[in-house]
């Protein structure tokens, strides 16, 4: 499967705030794996911008997060970025998810860190997140830390050989007993 589809990131209230087109590398059960090379365009209210990194993304139709692997131009892993979000949905060639503004970042050799807590607090106020939903998002962020700590990066071929995308990583499970996730605010 190498279809081009649109991904839409929505706010809690369903407003589309960012979108981009991707190549679907494969679909396995409830998992959809996509890829974009460096320079792909991302659109938001301010207009388009070109991403500086390659991105392989993992969207599940039944998990409360999605995972983005970013790669430097030499093909080395740069950052794992996990959005605490609704499970992805697929409708008429559009893959979408609601972004709840709380994220986890993991860089090679460093522990996973919860980021964007200031954005999450603002979203809590703006959208009047109920207390049980806030607790759910925080629990998902902790789960995302465990996912990040147990993540095995997919391979990415060097761009000099003319092919960015190697085989995507298989579905992973997290291991128990990993380090507690750090907390950082205002970045990501």
From TrEMBL:
<feature type="domain" description="DUF402">
    <location>
        <begin position="13"/>
        <end position="146"/>
    </location>
</feature>
<dbReference type="InterPro" id="IPR007295">
    <property type="entry name" value="DUF402"/>
</dbReference>
<dbReference type="InterPro" id="IPR050212">
    <property type="entry name" value="Ntdp-like"/>
</dbReference>
<dbReference type="Pfam" id="PF04167">
    <property type="entry name" value="DUF402"/>
</dbReference>
<protein>
    <submittedName>
        <fullName>DUF402 domain-containing protein</fullName>
    </submittedName>
</protein>
<keyword id="KW-0378">Hydrolase</keyword>
<dbReference type="InterPro" id="IPR035930">
    <property type="entry name" value="FomD-like_sf"/>
</dbReference>
